[in-house]
């Protein structure tokens, strides 16, 4: 019995499991095991909409065992602590796991670039828990600001509470800021009577010369114009040099007071991948060959955010790339077993999709560039089709439909804490979110 281990139940890992099940179905001498730290698949393209209460968090996750259905691969929820490629062994939290082939697709982690305080005093935005935490944070601070309208605290402290900063002008940063903007201007200002439009400050920081650098320049420029017109302050060439509980420092001189800073500025390869032998790129991704195999270990395939293929080292870290690589890894394992030539990975740019809030998007699909409401409808349609499972497609579609008629669900699901503005000593304290990290 030959054992094939797949690490990571994201886009690449799931696609590899599907492909292996299809290609090796009926061959009883193979055992395919998908290993993940959580028992669900997260549809990350819709994660920004969790923070704005646009969709229900549970509607963008699907249990892996439900997705598997009648497919023959096994799912194991466990944590991979290390990879020994020489011994062909994974060390799991629950014990050792030996393999004949290994598909590594564990995703990525946040890169803080060594900036002081970034890890401690900013919010990540990569997991479902991150989305729910940020949603609760926004609601909590809105309650505090609404309360402070009556207790009349220091105006500077009130301004800090209602300043939200997103660091990073890529897909995640832009879409998250657009969702937060919608939540404030379409919901908060109509429901919280102690918060005025002039009280809210939304800041998007990008260290590079422009946001959305992987998007067609005309669409990127239009996105900037749209966001600025809708009340978002966009700062390019704004390198963050320090993060503090009280706010964020730019270029070593300017300071923006803010209670909430979300870090979407960059990613690094997963620690499991960085620990692999062989060459790595500047963000720790494994430098694999044209067929996605690790140098010196043709039985090991590295995919998705963790891979830097020789044939396409600059391929974007997006879902279509991960899906294509998962398919290729499955086919190449079958080719090796049949003693056939392996296939080469070729990056095919199918375009870009960026949502800029409800009813608006910029889209470039196969060279066709659209913006506005019809682009937003296309963005919705494509993402619905990509969701795994008819049930989730219906749930998300209903969420979107209801949001056009009814207000967003802004109920906080945890018990409220005492407002920190009510006590003078809280002014010098670290915010409760940071204290509990």
Please write out the topology.
Layout: E1 2-7, H1 11-24, E2 30-36, E3 40-42, H2 48-51, E4 61-63, H3 64-68, E5 74-77, E6 80-84, E7 89-92, E8 95-98, E9 101-104, E10 108-110, H4 118-121, H5 128-151, H6 155-161, E11 163-167, H7 171-191, E12 201-206, H8 217-229, E13 232-236, E14 240-244, E15 247-250, E16 254-257, E17 260-263, E18 267-269, H9 271-274, E19 286-288, E20 293-294, E21 297-302, E22 307-309, H10 319-337, E23 351-355, E24 361-365, E25 368-372, H11 373-386, H12 390-403, H13 432-435
Parallel strand pairs: 1-2, 1-9, 2-5, 9-21, 11-12, 11-17, 12-13, 19-22
Antiparallel strand pairs: 3-4, 6-7, 7-8, 10-18, 14-15, 15-16, 20-21, 23-24, 24-25
Please describe what this structure looks like:
This protein has helices at residues 11-24, 48-51, 64-68, 118-121, 128-151, 155-161, 171-191, 217-229, 271-274, 319-337, 373-386, 390-403, 432-435; strands at 2-7, 30-36, 40-42, 61-63, 74-77, 80-84, 89-92, 95-98, 101-104, 108-110, 163-167, 201-206, 232-236, 240-244, 247-250, 254-257, 260-263, 267-269, 286-288, 293-294, 297-302, 307-309, 351-355, 361-365, 368-372. It folds into two domains: 2-37 and 78-110 and 267-337, FAD/NAD(P)-binding domain, CATH 3.50.50.60; 118-265 and 351-435, FAD/NAD(P)-binding domain. The chain has 13 helices and 25 strands. Strands 5-2-1-9-21-20 form a six-stranded mixed sheet, with helices on one face. The chain has 437 residues and is α/β, with parallel strands linked by helices. The chain is 34% helix and 25% strand. The model is unreliable at 424-437 (pLDDT under 50). Helix 1 (11-24) runs parallel beside helix 10. The two termini are 45 Å apart.
